[in-house]
Every structure is written in C-alpha cells, then in structure tokens.
Model the fold of this input.
Amino acid sequence: MEPGHTEVTEAQPIHRPGDCRVVGTVLARVGDKWSILVVMTLTDGPRRFNELKRIIGGISQRMLTFTLRGLERDGLVSRTVTPTIPPRVDYELTELGRSLQVPVQALGSWAFANLPTIQAARTRFDAGAEPDAA
Amino acid sequence: MEPGHTEVTEAQPIHRPGDCRVVGTVLARVGDKWSILVVMTLTDGPRRFNELKRIIGGISQRMLTFTLRGLERDGLVSRTVTPTIPPRVDYELTELGRSLQVPVQALGSWAFANLPTIQAARTRFDAGAEPDAA
DNA sequence: CGGAATCCTATGCGATACTG
DNA sequence: CAGTATCGCATAGGATTCCG
Done:
C-alpha cells in the first residue's frame, strides 16, 4: 500500500463512541508525517500544488502527492483541475475536512499547553535512565 | 531511535496555539500504532504488563514495552514495580495522561461520527480511479 | 512475569529523473 | 506546473530467544 492510503476499515470490536480502535483509525489517517500539515495549511483557502509544497517546506513532491491523494480519497480535500497549459490544480478542504480541524485543533491546544510538562518529564526520565551519560 | 521514542523538541517556527507543527508533534507522540490503544486501555485503572497485552491484543511484547516506555518518558503513564517473585509491574495513567484523553476522545467521536462518510468517499474514489478493475 | 537482545521483513519516504 | 516511476536507505515493528 502506498503511503497516505491508510485502511480505515476494521473487523475489530468497535462498540462505543470513542472506542480505542476507532480513534486509532483516525490517527492512522491523520497521524502520518504530513496529512495534518496539509490540512492545516489549507485552512486559509485553496492552494495549488507547488504552493503547498513551498509553504509546508521539507516535504517531497512524492509525499505531497500521496498525502493529497489520501486526503482526497477520504473526502477531506477536493481537487480541482484547470486544464490550461501549464495545468493548474487547486486543493481545498471539503466540509468534512474543515470539521476535522476542530478536534485536531483541540489536540493542538493540548500539545501547546503541555509541551513544557512533557519536555520536563522527558528530561527527568532520560536523566534517571542514563546517569552514566553525564 | 527506538519505536515509541518520538522527538517533541522542535526547532521549527512554532508561534500560535494550534499551529501546524505543534499538532504534528503530539500526533507523532500518540499517532503511532499503539500509544493511543494503551492510553485508552488504562482508562479504567492500573493494569499489569501482560494484562495490557492481552486486552489490547495483536501487540507484540516488544512494542508494548517500547510504547509504555515512551509514554512513561513523556510523563503520561507511571510505572510501579513490586519486586516479588515473579515480579509485578503496574502501569497507570498520570494526571497528564488522563488530560490527554479529553482531546483524544474528541477525535474519537469525530472518527466515529464520520466513519461512514469517509468510507463512502473512499469507495467512490476507488471506483472512479480504477474503473477497469470491475 | 516482565523485559532485553537479536534477527528479519515490510514499509516510509526522500532523491532523482522523466512525462504531459 | 503537476504529476508519475524507479531507486535506495532508514525505520517500524513482528517473531523468537534468553534473562532476572
């Protein structure tokens, strides 16, 4: 399977909302290296391929292609081709894509708020685990 | 770097709350294959190693170890050793770990609510992309 | 029981080159 | 410009075995 094509389909025991595996399912979709960056970058409106590439920075065209494909496949992003020469392709968040931003932003806020705590815990842990590495 | 040891430290331009890269940062932490499952499994209280392994199902002891280590390192999970023979080790969510569940649950709810939509979009996309595969 | 160490494969993903 | 195709390395992560 190509990167960006995550399987959401699950034969696992999913019963109540917020169940572990459903969460893992979205996470597998959005938790890859680039999807969120793309989704967030599309917040301000439609963007063209190379525009996205430039703004995001550090993403290869290969991964941008795969990521956009995956998002498009899941209905989070729409792709509009204007067959001029050279061709012009615009990517835009769908309604579903925009709705995803809400919980993602929440996670982002949590991250932002707790980053110091996490880093502190990490430093403490690493100090205790490798006292010889002084 | 071992699995489960994600780098949260970032030299990237992080400015406003909910910024792309901060989100990516948490996602890199909890977005791996198992972390969320472990965190969610610990909701009901402390669990022992093999208990977690059994409940989660499908996880190798290697990955459970790495995942727990990573979560412990970030202060999301606490590890309590009872040096009996055989030894007993209990894992429990910390306050930070429990606070993480809130945004994660939100994401889970979104997933649960939109799974049908996503699957429909996916089916439609796959049908259009490979019309020859009939 | 809980975990560490080693092995091995599948995949992620960047770099590069080519096409319409 | 917006891809696609091929290569190649680095990592994730499962299976297995050994240890306290």
Summary: Chain A has five helices and three strands. Chain A touches chain B through 53 residues (CB under 8 Å). Chain A has a mean pLDDT of 86. The longest strand of chain A covers residues 77-82.
